[in-house]
Amino acid sequence: MRKFLQRLLTKPVVNLANTLSSRPDRKRVDAALSELYQNITDHPGDKGQIINFDPQKDKFIILSDQHKGARDGMDIFAKAAKNYLAALDHYHKNEFFSINLGDSEELWENLFITVKRHNKATFEKEKLFLHRKAFIKIFGNHDLYWANDPLAPVSLIQIYGERVKIYEGAILQTKIKDKTLSIYMTHGHQGDLQSDGNWFSKWFVSDVWAPFQSYLRINPNTPANNDDLKTAHNRMMYQWSSKRKNTLLITGHTHQPVFKSFTHIEKLYSELGLAKKENDKSAITDLQTQIGKRKSKGDKLPDFTGYLDTYFNSGCCCFDDGDITGIEIADGCIRLIKWHYIHEKGSDRVVLEESKLEDLKIE
């Protein structure tokens, strides 16, 4: 019976959930991102830190949207947990600075005490970065608890063994070609009418979607999302970032990886446009074959000409096959990476996209 209902109801219910849970408003997005950026710049340490770094020496891993739960039918992190632990092992041993970009804990569907009980191993791994003073925790809409609940400081001490400052964002700064490059990071829910602290969205997730998801064992976060055009929210994030000189924006929230302002399918279409311009018939054939294997939402494709490399999205750590994605900044480069399971060999890191920071087209 469950399998029959899965086939019948999964697609319409996921579409309904996405519709109800995401209503980004362009003006609200612009205003919220600008206000937070200005606040961090003017008052570092209040809503966010500013970290100066050497691009050849310092290393950062940016992960988001784990949605750690209770290891029940609602827990979309459960399959990815081992990949996440393997990734943290790798980054700790290689002395990366860890930036947790929000929605780390699923506190709309679960009580904090339940999440704490079922995620001891992940908290212990995160604690290693904290002990090295190489850890920033940023809140998202699903773990807004960390920012506004009076018991949050006590809860953080319970899981990390010490006080932890929770931020809304952070800015990495460095010099590239004698210019200051700012890498602005926040969860990305700002300006979303159904996610920016909205009571209706929280009610829908906890009282309607969560029980349904638990019974049908549905995880809407499929790698196929990589093959879609950018969500409306991601487009708005790009539009904001494209107007800021020498600034990159990295968010999470949408669970859709974006690198240099493109999803994977958009990158293929952009490359196809260049191949046609250069009349490279071999490349045209190859790219058309790759595009033909994928389906993008919407019939009309945007014009990718003139896009800047200013926007990145870390994706999520809760894909339904157990994969996790994130953004690395190391060795003078920025990378979109994936950790996935290899049969009988544990977890493996794959570089999906890579660019030198100095090669980014940002103005």
Any descriptors?
363 residues, alpha/beta, Purple Acid Phosphatase, chain A, domain 2, 7-stranded mixed sheet, 5-stranded mixed sheet, 11 helices, globular
Structural commentary:
With 363 residues, the chain is an alpha/beta fold. The chain has one domain: 4-Layer Sandwich (Purple Acid Phosphatase, chain A, domain 2), CATH 3.60.21.10. 38% of the residues lie in helices and 20% in strands. It is built from eleven helices and twelve strands. A seven-stranded mixed beta sheet has the order 5-4-3-2-10-11-12, with helices on one face. β2, α3 and β3 form a beta-alpha-beta unit. The radius of gyration is 20 Å and the shape is globular. The mean pLDDT is 86.
What strand line-up does the widest sheet have? Answer: 5-4-3-2-10-11-12
- What's the main sheet like? 7 strands, mixed
Tell me the fraction of residues in β-strands, as a range. 15-25%
Order of helices and strands: HHEEHEHHEHHEEEHHEHHEEEE
Give the end-to-end Cα distance, rounded to a whole number of Å. 56 Å
Estimate the mean pLDDT confidence.
Answer: 86
The tally of domains stands at 1
If you compute it from the alpha carbons, what radius of gyration comes out, rounded to the nearest whole angstrom? Answer: 20 Å
The amount of helix comes to: 25-40%
- What's the CATH class, please? Alpha Beta
CATH architecture: 4-Layer Sandwich
- In terms of structural class, how would the helical and strand content be classed? alpha/beta
How many alpha or pi helices? 11
Number of strands: 12
Low-confidence stretches: none
- Which descriptor suits the 3D outline? globular
Name the CATH superfamily assignment. Metallo-dependent phosphatases
Any idea of the CATH topology? Purple Acid Phosphatase, chain A, domain 2
